[in-house]
Write a structure and sequence with these properties.
This protein is an alpha+beta fold. Helix content is 39%, strand content 19%. The protein contains 3 helices and 3 strands. It starts with a strand and ends in a 12-residue tail after the last helix.
Amino acid sequence: QLFVTVSDDLVQRGVSAGVLVQSGAPVIEGRGGGRPEMAQARGRRRERLPSALEAIRQALATQLREEPGTPAPDPEP
């Protein structure tokens, strides 16, 4: 099971726990959802939890980059 919480300051910056958990749920062959501040998912493939957490980390990085007023990172050479 995945459980994601997001602090109020990050919710105000546009980060959503629901979006984060939905990025990790398919990795564990599961489904989930929730609210911007809290979400959860269940899946059948517990052995894939490390990969699901990495998917959530990547989704968080994307959400933070897409924050209004934040410049996009420079492309790598």
